[in-house]
């Protein structure tokens, strides 16, 4: 499997016609990892039947430190 930065660079090129510098692709990969972690953590607090806006509200809530 490709590393995430390469995967993001390839997707940007294939789907949007955007050529990302490797450093920017790495930044986006790190951001996607953070967002994915937050969404996965939130799934334990909400159910499938909850209002979709509840996910946005939960993600906007600062994480406990």
Largest sheet: none
Count up the domains: 1
Report the principal-axis shape: elongated
- How many helices? The count is 3
- Separation, N- and C-terminal Cα atoms: 33 Å
Radius of gyration: 15 Å
Unreliable segments (pLDDT under 50, ≥5 consecutive)? none
Describe this structure in words.
There is one protein chain. By secondary structure, the chain is mostly helical. It has one domain. The chain is built from 3 helices and no strands. Helix 1 crosses helix 2. The longest helix is centred in the middle third of the chain and has 21 residues. It is elongated and about 40 Å long. The mean pLDDT is 87.
Descriptors for this entry?
65 residues, mainly alpha
Topology:
Blueprint (H helix, E strand, L loop, with lengths): L3 H13 L5 H21 L9 H9 L5
Helix pairs in contact: 1-2
Give a short summary of the structure:
The protein has one domain (4-60). The protein has helices at 4-16, 22-42, 52-60.
């Amino acid at each position: 499997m490709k590393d995430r930065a390469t995967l993001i660079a390839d997707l940007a090129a294939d789907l949007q016609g955007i050529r990302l510098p490797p450093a920017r692709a790495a930044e986006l990969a790190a951001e996607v990892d953070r967002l994915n972690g937050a969404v996965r953590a939130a799934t334990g607090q909400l159910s499938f039947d909850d209002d979709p806006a509840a996910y946005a509200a939960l993600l906007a809530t600062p994480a406990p430190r």
